[in-house]
Structure formats: C-alpha cells, structure tokens
Amino acid sequence: MEEIKSNKPDPYQALRYKEFNIFLLLRFAMVFAWSMQFIVIEWEVYSLTKNPLSLGIIGLMEIIPAVSMSLFAGHIVDQREKKGLLVKCILGFSVISFGLFLLTWPKVVGGWSTHVILYSIYALVFFGGIVRSFMGPTIFSLLSLIIPKKVYPNAATWSSSVWQIGAVMGPALAGFSINWIGVHWSMCLVFGFSILSLIALSQISQKPIVNPKMGESIKDSLMEGLTFVFRNKIVLGALSLDMIAVLFGGAVALLPVFAQDILKVGSEGFGILRAAPAVGAFITMLISAYVPLYENAGKKLLIAIFVFGLSIILFGLSTYFWLSVFALFLSGLADGISVVIRQTILQLKTPDHMRGRVGAVNSIFVGSSNELGAFESGATAKLMGAVTSVVFGGSVTLLTVVFTALKSPTFRNLDLKKDMDDHHKLE
Fold it and tell me: Are 248 and 397 in contact (CB under 8 A)?
C-alpha cells in the first residue's frame, strides 16, 4: 500500500487509495439499494393495506433478527476474513431483492390474495434483517483494513458521507421511480444495484484477520465487546444520542402517509420529499471534506441533533409542501453532520481486533433503530395520528439533547483533535 505524505491537511487524502474508492462505490451501491428497497416496499404495503401500522410492522420484521443476531454476527466477523463474508452478505441481499421483485410482479402474484402477498413480503424482510446483522459489522471492519491508520479520520468522513447520501438518495429515487416505472421495475433497479456492489467488491483483495484471540469462546468474545462499549463513555454517548434521534425523530417512515393523505402530492411529490434529505446530505459531504468536524466534536454533535429534532417538528406541523421539503432538507443536513462525527469517533476509538463486535453494537444502537423507529412511528401514528406522532418524536429528540448537554460535560466538551494528531503521526 502506497503511503501518501503531506504536511498540509488533505481533504482528499483517503481518496488517493484505489481500494478505498472501490469501497466507497460498493458501499454507496449497497446502502442505496437497501434504502431504496425499504421505501418501495413501504409504498407497496401501504397501498395494499392503507394502514399506517403495516408500515411499522415492516420495521419490526427487520429489527427482530437484526438485533437478536447482531452480537453473534459481530463475533463471527472478528473471526473471519472480511471480503469473503461480505460477498455472502451481498449475495443474500440479492436473493431477497429478487424475491421482492417477483412479489411485485402482477404476472406472478396476480391470483394471490392480499394477505399472502403481504406475509410473503414480511418474510423476505425478516430474512433481510439476518443479512443486515452481518453486513454492518463486516463493512465497518473492512474499512480499517483498506487504508492506513493515519487516514482513518478522513476515510471515516468520506465513508459516512457516502453512507448518508446513499441512505437518502435511494429512497429519493424510489419515490420518483414508483411514479415513472412502477413498484415492480423499481425493485428491478434495486437488484441491479446489489449486483453492482458485488462487482465492485471483486476488485478488492482479501485481507488478513487481525484478531489475536482466534478461537475465543462466543461468551468471552461478546462480553469483551459489550464491556468495551459500555465502559467507553464517549462511544456509548455517541451511539445513544444517535439512537434516540433515529428512534423518535425519524419521520421518514410516515412519508407515504404525508404524501398521500396530508400533503396530497402523490408519488411525484413523495419523490421530492424523499430527495430533500439527500440534498442536505450531499452538502454535508462537501462541507465535512473541507471543514473538519473533529474540533469541538461533542458540541457540534449536540447542535446537529438538536437542529434535526427541530426540523422534524417543523415537518410534522407543516401543511405546505415546500415548507415540508425545506424541513426535510434541514434534517438531512443535520443528520449528515451527526453521522460523520459519530463514525469518526468509532473509527478513532475502536481497537482493530474488536471492530466487528463494536460495529455490531453500532448496528443495534443506530442501524436497527431505523426499523424500530419505523415501528414506533407507525404505532404512534395509529394511536395519535401521523402529525402528532412526528411532533412527539421530534420533541423527545430535543429533550434528549438538552439532558445530555446538561448531564454529560465530558461528552459536551469532547474534542478529537488529539486523536487526529496521534493518527497523523503514525507511519
């Protein structure tokens, strides 16, 4: 691996490593496909049932296996070669997306009842949760094997920015593609992106296993990973904050309800609403590449999540389409900053041999909270209405930020400059 030396901060430092660029492509393709698939299925399920609780059940079907399998998956990831494991994950996702492609094809399910189609979708989403429990920790671990340690902070910025863009652009395209080509062919696009990520992965070489405790029992392995996370107040604080924001402040699960029943803008308006956070995330990527976020990281993270909560409340209260679009744009901008800082913290603070297990805990705290947040949003929308549900979630997010700022001065005053300097000194 060629070392890149420079005395000046280089916003493109990580991009000068070929395999890292390939990694970004495969990560974007995979996140894009997974996020797009989730929204396409949400639209299809709500169209079939007209019940917001059914949107929550989609999230529940994915989070049950994702959470229950994550710690075990983290142990396996730390014990196995990462590229081969990721190949299996992507193949598993491809099979699931192809199955959903068939389930949305009228020629295949034309004679099926709504309940049979619905339960078949739920079953595939459930198996997708199993795949996801392995994929998150594997990708997190593979990143650290592609670039040298001194490039971790810059790589974390690019990686988390690409993740954020994929996570919002996938749903954005889903909204437009549903309008342009329908649900069925939208699922075909998802399958195509999964194959693209598999092709990109083939260009990355196999990496060594860096775990010094090969063959360690599952019990000891899991206890070591959990102990590390819960004793490290910085890591635990970052994960907890983001989890609360995603769990209670995520309004996106209810976008089909807002687009169809409240704003009444149809699938085209739905696509614009989904695209708004993508624009915010893209701006975040540009800013974070040139303006480092590691100084006063704690304060910046708290402010970003506070703004995120405000934007969610604004979206919930808005009855004007373009005001709703602006609120979602603001939420994407703030959430992007939060993701970049959190991923930088995890990359800098996690030992190499524990990345699979820490990545698994991250999946439980943050990744799976997207689906649990979808269930929470669907359930509360059923109980108190969609608008009240979104405003309630945004308010909980604001209260959590205020509580953390007042009760955790260590986290509030977090500055990653020393960690950055230490990594830049590594040869």
Answer: yes
